[in-house]
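Title: Comparing notes on inverse folding

I've been comparing how different people in this forum approach sequence design from structure. To keep things fair, I'm posting one structure and asking everyone to reply with a full sequence. Here's the target:
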């Protein structure tokens, strides 16, 4: 299920409730990062609860394998959507919009396709165990 399918705002509380109400097996929350220094770039993924770690690791490994990305790591952080759901989840930030190279990358159909395949492969790896 897609929580957001168009360019409309939906708060994190509503997103968390949607995932829980629909009894999702997993949650993949995709965001685009930004920072005050335009030189910062790369992909990072976040997990919070112990149940999140395995899915976050599987998906992050696949994303990090994309040769066009700098791997900024898998990190534990208290992200609202991960903290307010009981299902295993990951919050991914594949690029920094504040970095010109990353911003150009996310605008290409080829990169978005490769990113989607990486997420799918991470999910397959997670659910096959």
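Reply #1:
Here's my take.
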């Amino acid at each position: 299920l897609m929580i957001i399918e168009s360019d409309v705002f939906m708060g994190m509380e509503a997103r968390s409730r949607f995932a829980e109400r629909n009894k999702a097996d997993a949650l993949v929350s995709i965001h685009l990062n930004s920072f005050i220094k335009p030189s910062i770039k790369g992909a990072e993924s976040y997990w919070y609860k112990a149940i999140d770690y395995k899915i976050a690791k599987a998906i992050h490994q696949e994303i990090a394998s994309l040769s066009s990305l700098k791997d900024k790591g898998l990190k534990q952080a208290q992200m609202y959507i991960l903290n307010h759901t009981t299902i295993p989840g990951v919050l991914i930030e594949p690029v920094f919009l504040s970095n010109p190279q990353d911003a150009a990358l996310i605008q290409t159909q080829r990169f978005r396709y490769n990113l989607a395949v990486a997420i799918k492969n991470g999910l397959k790896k997670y659910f096959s165990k």
